[in-house]
Amino acid sequence: MLGRTAAIALLSTAMATSSTRLAAEPVQSIAIRNQQFVPEQLVLPSGVKVKLTIANEDALPAEFESYDLSREIIVPVNHAVTVFVGPLSAGQYEFFNDFNPVMRGTIIVKPRNGERN
């Protein structure tokens, strides 16, 4: 019986740790408005996985695409999608709307405190 109690306690601790880690993921948002990304530039810390929400407020569908991030997802009219990016190294990562390639944005990843570029 003691073995079962220990296993339950260990499982509870693991679940609490996982929940804490999930809750700690930063969330960033981008809107698609008037055929532009708003904001056009995001600044993120390096080495961190980020939940990125992209909401399309325009009357046309869009496609969030980035060769740098290896991401491609259609964002329907009046809908939002979520993509996860990272952890990323310090640098600059471009994204665009594949349905309107003039519409572009950038993610700037900066080193965290004490981290080298």
3D structure, described in words:
The chain is an alpha+beta fold and 117 residues long. It has one domain: Immunoglobulin-like (Sandwich). Helix content is 20%, strand content 48%. It contains 1 helix and 9 strands. The strands form 2 sheets. The chain has a 5-stranded mixed sheet, with no helix packed on it. It has a 4-stranded mixed sheet with strand order 2-1-4-7, with no helix packed on it. A hairpin with a 2-residue loop joins strand 8 and strand 9.
What's this, in brief?
The chain has 117 residues and is of the alpha+beta class. It contains one helix and nine strands, in the order H-E-E-E-E-E-E-E-E-E. The chain has a single domain (25-110), classed as Immunoglobulin-like (Sandwich), CATH 2.60.40.
Name its key features.
four-stranded mixed beta sheet; globular; Immunoglobulin-like; alpha+beta; 1 helix
What is the average of the pLDDT values? 85
What is the CATH class designation? Mainly Beta
Look at the helices and sheets and give the structural class: alpha+beta
Spatial separation of the terminal alpha carbons: 52 Å
The number of domains is 1
Based on DSSP secondary structure assignment, what is the total number of beta strands?
9
Helix-strand topology string? HEEEEEEEEE
- What low-confidence regions span 5 or more consecutive residues with pLDDT below 50? none
By CATH, the topology is Immunoglobulin-like
CATH architectural arrangement: Sandwich
Strand content: over 45%
Number of helices: 1
**Principal-axis shape:** globular
Major sheet: 5 strands, mixed
Radius of gyration: 19 Å
CATH superfamily, by name, is: Cupredoxins -  blue copper proteins
Residue share in helix: 10-25%
The side-by-side strand order for the widest beta sheet comes to 3-9-8-5-6
